[in-house]
Structure formats: structure tokens, C-alpha cells
Write a structure and sequence with these properties.
- The chain has about 240 residues and is mostly helical.
- It has 9 helices and 2 strands, in the order αβαααααααβα.
- Strands 1-2 form a two-stranded antiparallel ribbon.
- Helix 2 runs antiparallel to helix 3, helix 3 crosses helix 9 and helix 5 packs across helix 6.
- It is globular, with a radius of gyration of 20 Å.
Length: about 240
């Protein structure tokens, strides 16, 4: 399978460095793999779709959106263990103290040197995934938003089912707050630090210091297998399989 990784010359320099970098000593690095980018933008579309289908009371479509979100979140959780270097939780979840030190420099204008998520962004990714997992599970398992019960309602006490149903609303409020914070951070990084965090999630490529090696990028076939298993697991949980 052909690689999307830029080839280097005999001196180890990327031949596109002069076109990509914002200064000398920088080169193009493939940071985000295609499956991760597709996951990111498809998830954004589905979350928006879940909101609007709820607002217009299209509850059958709302339930399908929730099940699709669950499949994507399951994919991302597994991909965070077996996927590309920059997708792995073990690579981007830093100590909380490192995240605090990073945030202390948020008003300092400086070039982007981070291959993947920065220490603060890594924790935001984990928070969003956990909120999305709780939101989708509370909607799919207990209350499927079409009927008053879901596949597992009969297996749990009424007070537990009612609690999880209430949590579906509370988790949405928390998720909305986290999304707003995420978007605000992207805007602040662009305005204060001069760093475009959106474009690399579209192209997959960042301009980084020449000393930054190319991270290992997992193959499309592995991502497809993980995705199929995640869809099957979400369907099974939702009682559709």
C-alpha cells in the first residue's frame, strides 16, 4: 500500500520543507492518520445531527445518530490503544502538571512544535470521549428515545433506569460545555499563539521542527477492521444485532 509519508533526501530533510514550514529548520510531518481525521469530522456531524433531530422531535433518527456516535466512540477507544502513535492514549496523555504548565504559556506566541495533541488537549480529548460514551450509552441502553425503555431496561431496577435517563440530559449539558471550551481553545490558539489546529485535522500534516521524526502511522486495513468490530458492538448493545 503506498505511503502518504513525505520522503526525505539523503541529508534527512523533507524536500517540501520550504513550502510548508513557517521558518527555517522545519518540515512537513504526517501527524494525523486518515481514519482519525474521518472519525473526527464524522463525529462532529453526528453530534450536531443528534441535537437537531432531538429539537425537531425526529426521535427515530435521533436514536440512529446516538447509535452511530456510540460506534465511533468505541472505534476511537480501541484506536487509542492499537492505532497510530499520535492516536494512542499512552502517547498523548501527559501528567496533569504538564497540562497546567502548558496552559500557563497559552498567551505566549510561539510556533507549534507538538507532534499530536498538546498536554492540555490530550485531556480534553479524553474528557470528550468519556462524555460521548456516557451520553450514547445512557440514551441507547436504557432509554432509546423512541420508546420508554431500551434493550437493558428490564434487567435493572426502575430507579437505576430513571437515574440513567436523567443522566442523558445532564451529560448533554456537560458535553455541550466541553465542546464550547474545545472550540474556544482552538480560537485562542489561532489568535494568541498563531497556531492553526484545524488545518492539520483536515490535511493530516503539520509543519514541525526538522528534528521531529515521523510518527508511526497505522494502516487503513487495521482501522477498517476496528471500525467493523465497533459497529457490530454498538449494534449488539443497541439490541439491533
Amino acid at each position: 500500500m503506498p505511503s502518504n509519508i513525505p520522503h526525505s533526501d539523503s541529508a534527512g530533510r523533507d524536500p517540501r520543507a520550504g513550502r510548508v514550514g513557517s521558518g527555517e529548520g522545519r518540515h512537513a510531518v504526517l501527524v494525523w492518520d486518515l481514519p482519525l481525521r474521518v472519525f473526527h469530522w464524522l463525529l462532529a456531524v453526528l453530534v450536531a445531527a443528534a441535537y437537531f433531530t432531538w429539537r425537531f422531535n425526529w426521535m427515530a433518527w435521533h436514536a440512529w445518530c446516538g447509535q452511530a456516535v456510540l460506534a465511533l466512540v468505541l472505534f476511537r477507544l480501541v484506536w487509542g490503544v492499537v492505532g497510530s502513535d499520535t492516536a494512542r492514549f499512552s502517547r498523548f496523555l501527559a501528567a496533569p502538571s504538564a497540562a497546567i504548565r502548558h496552559l500557563a504559556r497559552v498567551f505566549r506566541r510561539e510556533p507549534d512544535t507538538q507532534c499530536g495533541h498538546n498536554p492540555a488537549g490530550g485531556w480534553m480529548v479524553l474528557l470528550l470521549l468519556l462524555l460521548l460514551l456516557g451520553q450514547s450509552l445512557s440514551g441507547v441502553i436504557v432509554n432509546n428515545d423512541v420508546a420508554n425503555d431500551g434493550p437493558l431496561t428490564a434487567w435493572m431496577p426502575a430507579w437505576v433506569a430513571n437515574l440513567l435517563t436523567d443522566m442523558h440530559g445532564y451529560l448533554w449539558d456537560a458535553l455541550l460545555a466541553a465542546i464550547v471550551l474545545h472550540l474556544l481553545a482552538i480560537g485562542l490558539y489561532a489568535a494568541l499563539k498563531g497556531q492553526n489546529l484545524v488545518l492539520p485535522m483536515v490535511t493530516g500534516v503539520k509543519s514541525l521542527p526538522a528534528s521531529q521524526p515521523q510518527p508511526r502511522i497505522a494502516g487503513i486495513a487495521a482501522a477498517f477492521l476496528v471500525f467493523c468490530l465497533s459497529v457490530g458492538a454498538a449494534a449488539l448493545i443497541a439490541g439491533l444485532a
